[in-house]
Design the sequence.
């Protein structure tokens, strides 16, 4: 049975889907620990939707914390770079010191850049990713994606599990955020591949950690407006979506919250599509 006011660690929680997840969990009686990272600004940040996405990514989680507290939750924010493996146990230490042990983990944070296997001479014109953002895959672009999207997934889950077992807990939840392109993502090849690894780690966690009362599931959003979708791109994406609109962060957050409830206690190792039918 779920403990009262369990602590939920949400990564990438300063904006977009992660912020909506933190608020949804606060509404459901969780106490969110909101981890986030603000990358250094680059010239390309202002290429994406006139810089609106950059503004979202570079804010802290103060507003999200306030929303959670207004719902009656305890909530704290932790700024941390998940590409640095040493920060992961520190996040759990900080969570435990501030509000208590973590019972639920939502790994939403992600590294993203547009890369391709195709040389520049043969790339086709496309609306997304913008041609000025895309580059041929490099060792560095692969490593940047896998550090956050894959390696951090494994390390977060392992640290969560170690502490869970050490305190003899018998209820836990893990949800990881993937993408409809995990099986192969043209134009975003390293992003897609790193999310495929995230899904593999999550399914393995379901099998290995089930005996300790932990469920582990994957949520796969479609195009969701977190600041990156331009007015010109929106109708194109909406037209490819069965429900004929793009997603809102709350649409995905509600699916994550569902997996945290006792009604989902018999679901583990599953990949839930939360795309409004875009991923059909």
Sequence:
């Amino acid at each position: 049975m779920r403990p009262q006011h369990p602590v939920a660690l949400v990564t990438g929680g300063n904006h977009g889907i992660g912020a909506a997840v933190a608020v949804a969990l606060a509404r459901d009686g969780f106490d969110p620990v909101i981890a986030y990272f603000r990358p250094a600004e680059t010239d390309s940040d202002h290429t994406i939707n006139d810089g609106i996405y950059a503004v979202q990514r570079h804010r802290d989680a103060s507003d999200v914390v306030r929303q959670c507290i207004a719902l009656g939750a305890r909530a704290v924010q932790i700024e941390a770079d998940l590409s640095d493996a040493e920060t992961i146990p520190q996040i759990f230490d900080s969570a435990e010191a501030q509000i208590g042990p973590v019972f639920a983990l939502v790994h939403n944070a992600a590294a993203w850049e547009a890369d391709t296997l195709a040389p520049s001479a043969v790339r086709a014109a496309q609306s997304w990713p913008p041609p000025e953002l895309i580059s041929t895959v490099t060792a560095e672009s692969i490593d940047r994606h896998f550090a956050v999207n894959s390696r951090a997934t494994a390390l977060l889950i392992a640290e969560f599990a170690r502490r869970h077992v050490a305190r003899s807990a018998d209820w836990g939840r893990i949800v990881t955020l993937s993408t409809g392109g995990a099986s192969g993502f043209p134009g975003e090849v390293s992003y897609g591949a790193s999310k495929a690894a995230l899904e593999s780690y999550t399914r393995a966690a379901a099998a290995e950690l089930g005996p300790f009362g932990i469920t582990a599931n994957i949520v796969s959003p479609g195009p969701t407006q977190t600041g990156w979708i331009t007015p010109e791109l929106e109708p194109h994406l909406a037209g490819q979506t069965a429900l004929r609109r793009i997603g809102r962060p709350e649409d995905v957050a509600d699916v994550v919250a569902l997996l945290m409830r006792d009604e989902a206690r018999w679901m583990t190792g599953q990949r839930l599509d939360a795309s409004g039918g875009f991923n059909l």
